[in-house]
Amino acid sequence: MKQERFLLAGLMGDPVMHSRSPRLHNYWLKHYGLAGSYVLLGVKQAGLSAALKALPALGFSGCNLTIPHKEAAMAAMDVIDPVARQIGAINCVVVGPDGQLSGFNNDDYGYIESLREDHPGWRADAGPAVVIGSGGGARAVVSALCAAGAREVRLINRTRARAEALAREYGAPVTACDWADRSAALSDAAIVVNTTSLGMSGQPPLELDLGQLPRHAVVSDIVYAPAETPLLRNARLRGNPASNGLGMLIHQARPAFRAWFGVLPEVTDELRAAMQAATA
């Protein structure tokens, strides 16, 4: 069947130049023989609402959202998926046939899928989880961990009030801890997750002493550029199993691609190799 229009989707954020999402989605567009493009949309906070509302007129099927727009974009949506509403952030916008904007959050799905893929023996109830950050990424990770059966989640943020607010939303098992106590909070943890931009290319590293972290604990960073952040390098050197955010990026993209373009893409060895090369 002849394709009726050129397919468009993209990533809105500030910054966005580090993103590997175009390589991922454009790989799939080519693989499935679809004429289209996934582009980077550098949008400042002040222009977010106008940019989102322009998507239908510009012929976009939708877009992804990244830092710092995942929470603020909710105000511009006509419909918000229940999972996204519960998380309190969206990472995927779908433009309906009538121009209606629907917001979804696929980050929780992407995070758990990648964690289980990288660490098949991992169990959410194996011990306390430590989550660093309180933005949209943290909300998705906390939601995913709680849904998977975590019995204790220690939430740590530079501004404690934001961590406390998120902890109140979820109730038990989530508790807020002081930023100054972040290293001590690792003493009996089974997993530690960095959801901040600290360690990302062009950003300062996350200052976290892993000395008290058990050697079997998983160290997870949702940053994927660079492929090995200082946090992950420190974890690897002391023998902890570690994984970056590439798997989360890939797996959260699959339901978005299906919603925009009607195809649920596969994760192949060739794709993973291409993405790893792009983040090396």
Q: Could you describe the 3D structure shown?
A:
The chain is α/β, with parallel strands linked by helices. Helices cover 36% and strands 18% of the residues. It has 9 helices and 12 strands. The chain has helices at residues 21-31, 48-58, 82-87, 107-118, 136-148, 160-170, 230-238, 246-261, 269-279; strands at 7-13, 36-42, 62-65, 79-80, 92-95, 101-104, 129-132, 153-156, 174-177, 191-194, 218-221, 242-243. The longest helix has 16 residues, at 246-261. The radius of gyration is 18 Å and the shape is globular. 46% of the residues are buried.
Task: Name the beta content range.
Answer: 15-25%
Per the principal axes of the C-alpha atoms, what is the gross shape? globular
Strand order of the largest sheet: 2-1-3-5-6-4
H-E order:
EHEHEEHEEHEHEHEEEHEHH
The description of the largest β-sheet is: 6 strands, mixed
Structural class: alpha/beta
Low-confidence stretches: none
Mean pLDDT across all amino acids: 95
* Intertermini distance: 38 Å
